[in-house]
Design a protein that fits this description.
Blueprint: H1 2-22, H2 25-46, H3 54-63, E1 66-68, E2 71-73, H4 76-100, H5 106-151, H6 156-166, H7 170-183, H8 188-199, H9 202-217, H10 222-268, H11 272-278
Antiparallel strand pairs: 1-2
Helix pairs in contact: 2-4, 4-5, 5-6, 5-10, 6-7, 7-8, 8-9
């Protein structure tokens, strides 16, 4: 029976593969665009009750596409389609597999479909959080370098261009995007504000505000950036202290549950028979 299930799964996989190979790309693109437009209408109705996360929308607008489950998703509508298709596919697969295996997997299929439906947005949010943490950790060093370059005689544009060309980190990539936007004709303020939003980091947004104000007013920013770097480092140090304190409390709980309670049980184990005789 297991061999038959494996053979059926292989035949279905071969059929789907041959179908996709022979399917015209233009027809596939037309079908996908039609589904995407329908999904956009559905999302616009759904957003009346609750709007999509602004950070996810912004990430799609700036990045162009995001890789989820090996699929390049290019919009909120495409994400909605991916969630629907993947959850329904999993539901059908598990129900059919349970039918062939002569087991009722309907509840498992429903639970798995719900999990898969809500999983893609969480994957994107985890990518946003990871990116924000990287920028937060890189920011003090980048600010120190920027301040040193300005003190050395470079103007703000030259210093930012130097960082974007020579430092292959998340912050350097953001400054590179700002340089590209300025080259395409976007104003400096708009370019800087766009990368500030894309950073998803409050400290980086503060730095960008300082740079924009310095560009408008013409004030020197090297000392301000130096002080800003010290403040960010102190904040990071405070966060580490808070995390270590939480870790200590968790360790105390673990020690109590896995060491103190078993020790008490071992001490009470010899007198349990005597207690049973009394009661």
């Amino acid at each position: 029976m297991n061999l038959i299930i494996i053979l059926i799964a292989i035949l279905i996989s071969v059929f789907v593969f041959l179908f996709l190979i022979n399917f015209n790309y233009k027809d596939a693109r037309l079908v996908f665009d039609t589904l995407e437009s329908r999904a956009e209408d559905a999302i616009s109705r759904f957003n009346k009750a609750g709007s999509e996360d602004d950070d996810i929308k912004l990430l799609f607008e700036e990045e162009g596409s995001i890789n989820i489950f090996g699929v390049r998703v290019k919009s909120i509508e495409g994400l909605f389609l991916l969630r629907i298709i993947s959850s329904i596919s999993f539901l059908i697969f598990l129900v059919v597999f349970g039918f062939l295996w002569k087991k009722n997997l309907t509840y498992h299929a429903l639970i798995g479909a719900v999990i898969i439906y809500f999983l893609p947005p969480q994957i994107i949010k985890s990518k946003i959080i990871t990116k924000s943490k990287k920028i937060q950790s890189e920011l003090p060093d980048v600010i120190d370098i920027l301040s040193s370059l300005i003190k050395a005689g470079l103007n703000l544009d030259e210093a930012l261009n130097y960082i974007s060309e020579n430092y292959k980190c998340e912050t350097g990539k953001l400054f590179k995007k700002a340089q590209v936007k300025i080259f395409e004709g976007t104003s400096k303020a708009e370019a800087y504000h766009s990368i500030a939003k894309l950073s998803f980091c409050n400290d980086f947004k503060t730095v960008i505000k300082i740079l924009v104000q310095a560009e408008i007013i013409g004030n020197p920013v090297s000392e301000v950036l130096k002080d800003m770097s010290k403040v960010i480092r102190n904040n990071q140090r405070d966060l580490l202290k808070i995390s270590s304190e939480r870790l200590e409390s968790n360790l105390v709980l673990i020690i109590f549950v896995f060491m103190f309670v078993p020790t008490i049980f071992l001490f009470l184990l010899p007198i349990i028979p005597q207690l049973q005789m009394l009661f």
